[in-house]
Design goal:
About 50% of the residues lie in helices and about 15% in strands. By secondary structure, it is of the alpha/beta class.
Amino acid sequence: MAVAGMRAIYGELPAPLGAGPDPLATSVLPLPFLLPAQLVSLAHASPKAGTLLHRAFGAASFGLTYHVALRTRALDDALRDAVKAGTKQVVVLGAGLDGRAFRIPELEGVKVFEVDHPSTQRDKKARLSKARIEPIADVVFVPVDFERDKVDESLVEAGFSAGDRSFWIWEGVTAYLTRDAMTSTLRAITRVSPPGSRVALTYVRSPSKSADPAQPIIRKVARVIVHAGSAVLGVMGEPVRGVIDSEAMATLAQEAGFRLCSDESAADWAKRYWQGESPGPFEWERIAVLERMTS
């Protein structure tokens, strides 16, 4: 809900900061998570006020709000490129309150499989029903526990075509999984994805790799935030288990049958979308885009 609330903020901001409206985020969230977005909407008459709020939220969150907005835009563009290239089926792993099937016009006529934990999925479906929101895409909900269930078998049972090229989004999930769960999921994707299929996944590196080594204070702050955040998430039942370095991620992908197409951070996305405005004091996550190789 917090991440959807951050997306809602940038649905209210104008270009180039705005990531576009997210009707799901603005319709299903409880009021506390929508307050920042409502503040931004009140500032529509003054572009300067919107920019100031954007920077205030970024400073208060150590760049996390920037990161979520930029990550959303980068993954949206990778998805649009895949659909433009002919992909007719998309899989969103650990979908949560992802709203792409409800807000991206290019997904009309595309089958989108939303894979998530059964309890999370029940909550989302109840919120959608209450808000009476209809998807643009043909959405299929697939309940899966990544630590126990076989993703590929669950998808095929739900109507996924293993012979057709696919695009997979794995956003904000790997940090909560063990290395074994990451490996088994990538291998499951390999089993049902023909060559040319792609996976766009986010992953978290260790604080020592995610902050500028020339700025020791930032590195210390990063370490404190990561440890504090991990403790809070652990109490909430979502402990951070999947910190992985870029080299290890590339190796893991290769062993599962993928080649690494790109590996970017929010600093790269900011250069592309925000004319170089700083995405925050350190790196929260990276996006690796992988392509299924020939056997």
